[in-house]
Design brief:
The protein is α+β, with helices and mostly antiparallel strands and about 220 residues long. The chain has 9 helices and 4 strands; from the N terminus they run E-H-E-H-E-E-H-H-H-H-H-H-H. Strands 2-1-3-4 form a 4-stranded mixed β-sheet, with helices on one face. Helix 1 packs parallel to helix 3. It binds glutathione.
Length: about 220
C-alpha cells in the first residue's frame, strides 16, 4: 500500500453517495490507504463539511499537506503523485480517450442521475425509467461497448481498472439496481465491476450502513 504519511478522505453515505464512491475507488487505484471521515449530509454537519471542503461537497482528499476536492481533481492529483499506479492508460491515445469519457460522466448525464439515483440497498425487478434518461443510458452503453471492443475488456481500458472504471462504477450499480435492460457486453461489464475487490468492499460496507432516507434529497 501507500508510502504516504497522512491521507484522509471525507465522504458521506456509502449507500447513496456516488461521488464518495468514485473518490474512494480512486484512492484504491492509487494504492493509498485513507482514513475515512464520514460527514453526514444534514444541516448540523454543514459547518463541519465547509471546514473540510470549500465546495461543501464530498469527496475531499487531504493528503500529505494537499487538500483536493472534486473527483476529477482527485484523480489527476493521485495520478501525478503515483505515476506507477497505472490509474490512466499508458498509451497517449487511450489516455486521452479515458480522460474524455471520465469528463463526460463528471459533467453530464444529469437526467440519468435524477431518474435513477444510486441506492446500493435496492434491487428492483423492474422499474419505470423516465424517457428523458434514455439518451443518457444509450450513450453510456455506447461508451462501454466502444471501450471494451477497442481495448478487449474486462475493464474499460483492458485488463486493469483505470480512472474511467472508478468514474462509471456507480452507474453500473444504477443499471443493476433499476433493472435497466442491457446487452450482454454491458451486463458483463457491470458484473466485472461488482466483483472488483475495492468495489465489493464498498458494497459490503454500504449494506451494513443504517438506513437514512434523508440522503435521498441531495443530488448524486
Ligand atoms: N463535482 C463534484 C460533485 C460532488 C457532489 O455532488 N457530491 C455530493 C455527494 S454525492 C455532495 O457532497 N452532496 C452534499 C453532501 O453529501 O453533503 C465532484 O466531482 O466531486
Amino acid at each position: 500500500m501507500s508510502e504516504s504519511g497522512s491521507a484522509q478522505l471525507s465522504i458521506s453515505s456509502k449507500t447513496y453517495s456516488a461521488w464518495s464512491l468514485r473518490g474512494w475507488l480512486l484512492c484504491r487505484l492509487a494504492g493509498i490507504e485513507v482514513e475515512e471521515k464520514v460527514v453526514a449530509n444534514d444541516a448540523a454537519n454543514r459547518a463541519e463539511l465547509l471546514l473540510l471542503s470549500p465546495s461543501v461537497l464530498v469527496p475531499r482528499l487531504e493528503h500529505e499537506g494537499a487538500s483536493v476536492w472534486d473527483t476529477l481533481a482527485i484523480a489527476e492529483y493521485l495520478n501525478e503523485k503515483y505515476p506507477g499506479a497505472g490509474m490512466l492508460p499508458q498509451d497517449p491515445i487511450a489516455r486521452a480517450h479515458c480522460r474524455s469519457i471520465s469528463g463526460e460522466i463528471h459533467s453530464g448525464f444529469t437526467n440519468l442521475r435524477s431518474a435513477l439515483p444510486m441506492n446500493l440497498k435496492v434491487e428492483h425487478e423492474s422499474f419505470p425509467i423516465f424517457s428523458g434518461a434514455r439518451p443518457d443510458i444509450e450513450r453510456i452503453e455506447a461508451i462501454w461497448q466502444e471501450c471494451i471492443e477497442i481495448y478487449g475488456g474486462p475493464y474499460l481500458f483492458g485488463s486493469e481498472p483505470t480512472v474511467a472504471d472508478a468514474m462509471y462504477a456507480p452507474v453500473t450499480r444504477r443499471f443493476l439496481s433499476y433493472a435497466v435492460p442491457m446487452n450482454d457486453l454491458c451486463r458483463a461489464y457491470c458484473e466485472t465491476i461488482a466483483v472488483w475487490a475495492p468495489m465489493a468492499e464498498w458494497l459490503a460496507a454500504a449494506k451494513a450502513e443504517p438506513e437514512d432516507i434523508e440522503e435521498l434529497d441531495v443530488e448524486f
